[in-house]
Amino acid sequence: MVGALTDTRKQRTDAPLLTVKDLVVQFPVRGNRKALVHAVDGVSFEIYPKETFGLIGESGSGKSTVARAISRLIKPVSGSITLGDVRLDELTARQLRRHRHRFQMIFQDPNEALDPRMTVRSSIAEPMRIQGHIDRAFERKTVDELLERVGLDPEHGDRHPHELSGGQRQRVNIARALTLNPELLICDEVVSALDVSIQADILNLFTRLQAELDLSYLFITHDLSVVAHISDRIGVMYLGRLMEISPTEDLVARPGHPYSEALLSAEPQAMPSTHRTDDRIILQGELPSPITPPSGCVFHTRCQYATDRCRNEVPVLRITAPNRWVACHHTDDLQLKGTAERRSTAE
């Protein structure tokens, strides 16, 4: 599928930094050898140099599993993961160690990601020591520079995690991820555990770091307002599959998939209740089981526009506009509402 997407791409002529093609991740069900959890089912996308690609979906959609597969924390059943010209999914553990500096992952809980017994300085320096750097003067200078880059003072390096706030701990995790000068940062719900005011500071930090260091991001979250704030393009996942890939502005203005429309309608509206629109889309029922996903389009059990074709035929992620792909049989016929249209209706 990635080949087909590349053939029709008009706006990008540079080579992608990361290419994920037909990624499949499954897990066995404890106590039932024949049953499998279909966590990720044929996901394909690309991330370009200096681009932020957001991945959004409900809990259980498979977005964090995609991140862990790319990071080689779990092994995919099939598909390919290519960073530059290197197939990460084919590397042995020893080979992977030589390339791991090129990509780093930042996790959701800043406290759990840090060893409480280690000082901040030791935690940030640890990746350099693993890679064989032994010059302690260079190590100290690098850590101090990284602390300042993420908005902390060098004196924070002598503290332990419990002596820092949640936002400061996440800044330490970001500094540690930058230690080996990566090309790609994989950010898995990195602001969801923080207060709203701190979230904005961290998002602004990511934006600044990208401009200074030419970073690419895979930014994973369940919060559409967060991902829309920072992303160039957004991929919408549902039950292990991609429903839509779109430039952020296009997705927010006019979603191409009914599931994207439902996510947009669920966003809080900053206006008095008497002026809010009452056409919020309430998805009926729970997310289906990934052990026995629905036939056809996996979203049809909760989609208000579903037809018999949706129930029986799996939609292909196809191009519907330049740099935009949607997996819906009826996307050309639907007039789905974006954020601006809902606000104008409310006003």
Strand content: 15-25%
Mean pLDDT: 88
Which geometry do the CA atoms define?
globular
Using the 3D structure, state the CATH architecture of the largest domain.
3-Layer(aba) Sandwich
How many β-strand stretches? 12
- DSSP helical segment count: 12
The major sheet is characterized as: 8 strands, mixed
- Strands ordered across the widest β-sheet: 6-7-8-3-9-10-12-11
Radius of gyration: 21 Å
* Low-pLDDT segments: 1-10, 269-277
Number of domains: 2
CATH superfamily of the largest domain: P-loop containing nucleotide triphosphate hydrolases
The CATH class name of the largest domain reads Alpha Beta
| N-to-C SSE string, H for helix and E for strand | HEEEHEEHEHHHEHEHEEHHHEEH
